[in-house]
Design brief:
alpha+beta, HIT family, subunit A, 5-stranded antiparallel β-sheet, 21% helix, binds guanosine-5'-monophosphate, binds zinc ion
Length: 111
């Protein structure tokens, strides 16, 4: 499968990785829209939230715990941050490997 985020997770493509554990990798977005803009991905290929299965429920819980941990270690937990999943074409999802955007480092406005 030709998935760029699977390739980043396997270190076959370069990325600035800021966190990794058994199940997830987090790295800097190549085109950041906030001072802090990371993408947190499961190492397992899941196309989008639309493709989640019951067996993924523990993994998804762990994804939020990883996001919480990263926000804390990156120093934005107290000021706050935004977590975003894009799902499908109307959302503008460009990469078909489930990813959680972690945005922070400034006051975020809806746009
Ligand atoms: P989406 O719109 O699919 O939710 O967001 C995909 C994100 O991945 C975009 O913010 C885009 O800038 C980022 N992105 C796309 N290709 C790459 C890449 O090769 N490396 C990194 N680090 N980010 C990427
Ligand atoms: Zn993938």
């Amino acid at each position: 499968m030709n998935c760029i985020f699977c390739q980043i997770a396997k270190k076959e493509l370069p990325a600035t990785i800021i966190y990794e554990d058994e199940s997830f990798v987090a790295f800097k977005d190549i085109n950041p829209i906030a001072p802090i803009h990371y993408l947190i991905i499961p190492k397992k290929h899941i196309t989008s939230i639309n493709h989640l299965e019951l067996q993924d429920k523990e993994l998804m819980g762990e994804l939020f715990l990883a996001a919480k941990k990263i926000a804390k270690t990156q120093g934005i937990a107290d000021n706050g941050y935004r977590l975003v999943f894009n799902v499908g074409k109307d959302s503008g999802q460009m990469v078909d490997h489930l990813h959680l955007h972690l945005l922070g480092g400034k006051k975020l406005l809806w746009s």
